[in-house]
Amino acid sequence: MNTEIDSKERTRKDSNINFVLRAITLTIEPGANVTRDTSVTLRCHASISSLGQEPLSREYTLYKGSERIYNKVMSTSEDFLHQLPNARLSDTGKYKCEIRIKDKSKTSENVELTVTGLSKPVLHVNNSMVSEGEEVIATCMAPGERGSFYFYFYEDSKEIHIMQASSNQAEARLSINSVGSHIIHCEYTVVVIPFVFKSEQSDTVKVSVTELSIAVSLDISPQHNIYEGDQIDITCSVINFPQRSYNSILYLSQGDKILKVEKKTTFTHSMIIKAKDSVLFECGLEMGNVKKLTTKRVSVTELFSVPTLTMSPAEVFQRDAITLTCRSENYAPQRLKDEELTYSLKPTLNLQEHGKGVYSVKATFRDINITCVAKARDLMKQSEILAVRPKVRASRPRISVIGRAIIQQPITILCQSDSGSLPINYTLFKGYDALNTISVKESFQQALFTVTINRAEEIKQYTCEADNTKGRMQSESSDRLRAFVTEPLKNPALIVIPTVEQIFEGGHLSLICTVTGTPPVTFKFYQQGNKDPLHTTTSNENHTSYEVPRLSKAHSGKYFCEADNNAHQVVSTELVNIEVRMAMWKKALIGGSCLLALSVLVVVCVLCFKSKRVKVDKATVSVWSKRPPEDDVVDDEESSVVNSEPDVEYTEVVHPQPVDPNRGAVDHHDYGSVEYAELNGEHPEINHYRPEVNSFHDLPVPVD
């Protein structure tokens, strides 16, 4: 089973390999642009390569736009041809051809065909002579055309009917209402999406309409000296009504109002006439497409005129007394007595009448609409509405400063009432002098005044008034203006503590910046050469300080201070030069060092000088001997200071040196160094002894 399926699949694939569908093209003969009645051929040519001689079954499909218009199967290699005999404008469009062989297909590119020219329409009417109201049947044809049509019918060049048709002709029933001769013609259009092509105009047909002898009449009684309130009788009738039956309607109208409608040839209508009503009456007949009518106007005299309602004064405030007057300016004395005419107000309110149609009342706290009603006999006339809008008196204004009040700078003052009807006039005063007046007419407006003061005390001199009574009442005055006044800064000074002569390294420095003006004040301390401040602070006082706790040479330089407050006028001090001097202990140390060095130098010089004068023989030695006790009794005072150690006496012992025979006689001896000891605070004397040459017997004997 599987072997058979594989064999069929292989056979199908082999058959597809036997041909190659290369291309397909569509051409239009004799060309893409032709005129009406030209025979057009659409040629579809396929380029196919195959292995064998066996003909291939080819299926051709022709499209116009997206619509399939023709399909044919061929087994030959000839081109596929489609004829469009006597081409019409409806054949205009884009065409394409598709070929399918087995499971392969290919489509040509679109080719556009354009056909120009439409046939002239032909118009026929069933009757060229008709009576008034009779219909005319008109037929419009588009000879030889195909497609989708719209037909248009015209009466005296005015379009009167339009209809759509799928065939090349249309029939319309035309109603020609006016009497006389009329010219009829037609036109048509062919729709070729997305375009519409219009034909030329048909020949004209003349249609004559004869008038029917039917007429209508309108009679009004009485015809003269009609006053409002009088009754009149109106008769509407048809003259020469035809004998044959017609579906007719007879009507009577007054202006836009239909008074009566009857399916009769005559009727009478009675009514009470009013002057305010339209006095133009119309009687009309509608019979099929026939319309007949006639009109008549009557003159009606007013019995009394529409009353007018006035108010005095024209502008009122809440709780004000107002006078309302209701009056008809004109009335017919020959028909109406004065006492027959009465007046009243709606709503009644708490009115006090002061004569006929004159009333007084107090204005309420709210708006109210009042009308006046005049009555006489069965007539009632109402005046136009009088809108009473009691105004609200401007309340006591409040006066304030917008923004900041700064001396010698523009100050904006606002004067405002919390309530009051617009417009309100606000006046600014300084003391008793009126400076300026501003009228506020819209709710979004404000009364803003601009002033300048030189002293803070001046701000209290300003007041304002609000008035919307146009001087009829006393204006409301505000309290005196109270506002915080900012005085610009001045007189900046920078104080240095201690004085510049007493500034030393390691010491303490205070820079005090002072100004005059209104705090808070922002102070900034600078050292010349640095764009950034050393210290910034805001103070509620007119001074502040900057402390440098431990000075060094780096703090030497020029310093200044800047100050600013809400007036935003920055002031700056003069430069102060600060020189940090050397510390006192450093000076003392340097002086002491110098003195010490000088002292050492002096000592060295003295020792050097003495060493040259005092020379002792190198053989000289120093010995210590014990002092023998004295026989004398020492007093108590001396004995108390002698310690228990034995007394030591300095004894100089000289040792003779061998004589140098080369030197000769010796005048003196070189004693070398002398050693001494200080004992018990006493300094033993040094005895100089000059021995004789080679004489040693006189040398002192060492003491045990």
From TrEMBL:
Mind telling me which Pfam families this protein's record contains? Answer: Ig_2, Ig_3, Ig_C17orf99
Query: Which residue windows are transmembrane per the record?
Result: 588-609
Gene3D superfamilies, per database record: Immunoglobulins
One GO BP annotation of this record = immune response
Task: Please give one Gene Ontology molecular function term for this protein.
Answer: transmembrane signaling receptor activity
Q: Which GO terms describe its cellular component?
A: external side of plasma membrane
Locate the Ig-like domain: which residues?
A: 492-577
Which stretches of sequence are listed as region Disordered? 627-649
Source species, domain of life: Eukaryota
UniProt entry keywords in alphabetical sequence: Disulfide bond, Glycoprotein, Membrane, Signal, Transmembrane, Transmembrane helix
**PANTHER family noted in UniProt:** IMMUNOGLOBULIN FC RECEPTOR, PLATELET ENDOTHELIAL CELL ADHESION MOLECULE-LIKE ISOFORM X1
Name this polypeptide is given: Platelet endothelial cell adhesion molecule
Q: Which organism is it from?
A: Collichthys lucidus
